[in-house]
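Hi Y.,

Following your request, here is the sequence exactly as I used it, all 225 residues.
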Amino acid sequence: MTIMLPAMRRPIHLPQTKLTRTPVRLIRQGEPARAKRTSPAPIILHVPAATPFGQNAYAGYVRVLTAEGGVHITYKNVDTRWRHTIRRVLVWTACTILGGWLLLYHEPLLSDGFNFLCLIALMIVTWLIVRRPVEMVCTVEIRPDCMVLDGTDVFRVEFMEGEWPIFQPDPDDEDTLVLGGVYGSRFVEYITAHRLDEHDRTPELLATHLQDAIEQIWSRAEFGF
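Below is the corresponding structure, written out as tokens. Let me know if you'd prefer a different format.
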């Protein structure tokens, strides 16, 4: 018996071709197609111009919350202690004596009358310089149970009989506000806030923030909130 096998086909050799991949850039919706890549445009930051008083509008004034649930305020005040007044008088007197000796006896300028006028001008200018107020940094902290002044003087709320302290204008100085009230059996002036210059509004700002802190913090403590 003879078995016939089918004839095998000869393999066909196809010419090899080199495949190249061309990168395709996906264009998002709304993005315009660009023919070539360009460098990004520079970013311009618009910085506001500095004001005559600097970037901080509350110069020398800081109000923060404390860990004890109170408010701590730092502000600038005028130092009215007597030692600064005595120092002003001594400096002004020394400058006047030295200037008078130089103008009238040591190195006279033109005439006695002119030298005397120069001495008067020297006295006025020296007094305008030494009479400038001496600034000092003060602090006041309102806690749920007390008020602390400059970190040392503590006034407890339980001894403030009648009403809480309030700010009132000083009858002798229109540029000064006084925080006062009854403490125990005496009337106490806790804070005397002076104006540094004619444009300074630190006393009014301090009075507003301090009254708000007293009403909010002490009212909650009184009612147990």
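Residues 82-106 form the longest helix (25 residues).

Thanks again,
Q.
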